User: What shape does this take?
Amino acid sequence: MTTTVTITGTGCPIPDAERAGPGVLVDVDGLRLQFDAGRSTVQRLAGAGLPNAEVDAVFITHHHSDHLTGLQDLVLTRWVMARGEVRPPLPIVVPAGPAESFVREMLHPWRHDLDVRAAHANRSDPLTLDIFPFDLPDQPIEVWRRGDVRVLAGQVRHEPVHPAVGFRVETPDGVVAITGDTLVCDEVAALAAGADVLVYEAMRFEKIRQRPPHLQFILDYHADTPRIGAQAAELGVPTLVLTHLIPPPESDDDVQAFVDDIRTAGFAGELVVAEDLSQVTLG
Ligand SMILES: [Zn+2]
Ligand SMILES: [Zn+2]
Assistant: This one.
């Protein structure tokens, strides 16, 4: 078996021509699990070899728009492009609360479009979703399973956004932990214990502190690169992937600054400062 982790978007709310909104695709021998779906996720999935957004389940970390603006596109594309082939309803695993509300309501504005498409194409398979809400766990809990692949959710620290979770994907090839948006915290350590790949949101606080006062609030709820490096070293994860990069790197020097922060903090494993469609393979 092979498990492939593809970063479908390394961006954040700051628009960037080279970086789609946040998302991670974990493919376990053809079982395709998408984590968050920021802007342009469908285009990145096409770049990853899934031209019609043919994923098998979607997992949502929290209700910030940068993680969700591509989700309607993903769901609509998966249905529109499935002509002549009936696909099962898409499972969407989501924390109960605001993100769940978004998912439940997100097709409502498209109802007229869906009606006219279904009638015009004489389709008898209306677009339906299989929504699996879960309550915020104290400790990581299983929220989805298929065969020997299971996905656990664990709370992270992204206050005042609540709930916010990260995910842990356990496959026969190994363990992939995805932080979502969070401070560096013990909750991430619990989620990532023994992981082979840790996909971490990353922000260089040092750069943000040079910005105007009205931008300083984002220091409240993101992960500072030196602390990421220290935690990854302590956890002993073999591979660390940085994504949701703030500020978005604009040069090789900017990328190197992320690397230097992590290395100076003591992490000596494999390090990927992700670009869109960066991949890591297990197994
Ligand atoms: Zn975000
Ligand atoms: Zn967020």
User: Anything to note?
Assistant: Residues 14 and 248 are 8 Å apart (CA to CA). The pocket of zinc ion (ligand 1) is lined by residues 12, 22, 64, 66-67, 181, 244 (CB under 6 Å).
